Amino acid sequence: HLDEKGLTEATPEMVRTAAGNTISNYDTELLNLLKNEHEFLLLLAISRYFHNQPKSYITTAEINDEYQVLCEEYHRDPLKFATLKRYIVRLEKLDLLSKKFALPEGKERGRESRYGLLGFSAEVLEDQLTKMMDNIFK
Question: What is the pTM of this model?
Fold first, then answer.
């Protein structure tokens, strides 16, 4: 990927793509594990964030912000923050997200949860989830 794009440094998305896990129109077994619209919206929010940001992690607050935007876009009532956190834990249990704790940026104390998308291209995942959501809700 680096040679093709004439780059010297890999982005987190390049690493996820190189991991080899892809989701296509023909292989949706993983997405079939999602139980309701909010799990789809949550995963779409995370994949959209990673597709648009060159970061390797997303915080719980950033997930909530992205999720709120998608709920508005798809005319869905958003979950309360505490309930949303339970859905994040479910995505972790499905091995779609990894979680690490770290010191919040710019602070000397405390910790924040940082989530990463496990081995899937955010771009491909976003595309697949968008198609599914558009078919169901738009």
Answer: 0.79
Residue keyed to tokens 């979680």? 99
Q: Is 97 helix (H, G, I), strand (E, B) or coil?
A: strand
Phi, psi of 52 (to 5 degrees): -95, -10
Q: Which residues contact 20 (CB under 8 A, 6 or more apart)?
A: 119
Closest CA to 138 of 82, 85, 90, 73: 73
Q: What is the pLDDT of residues 52-89, one digit of tens each?
A: 998 989 999 999 999 999 999 999 999 999 999 999 99
SS (HEC) of 44-92 = HHHHHHHHHCCCCCEEHHHHHHHHHHHHHHCCCCCCCHHHHHHHHHHHH
Sole residue written with tokens 């091995």: 95
32 contacts: CB under 8 Å, gap ≥ 6? none
Question: Between the CA of residue 39 and those of 3, 6, 51, 94, 108, what are the distances in Å?
Answer: 36, 37, 18, 11, 34
Q: For residue 37, what are the CA distances in angstroms to 9, 10, 23, 28, 136?
A: 36, 33, 18, 15, 9
Residue count of the chain: 138
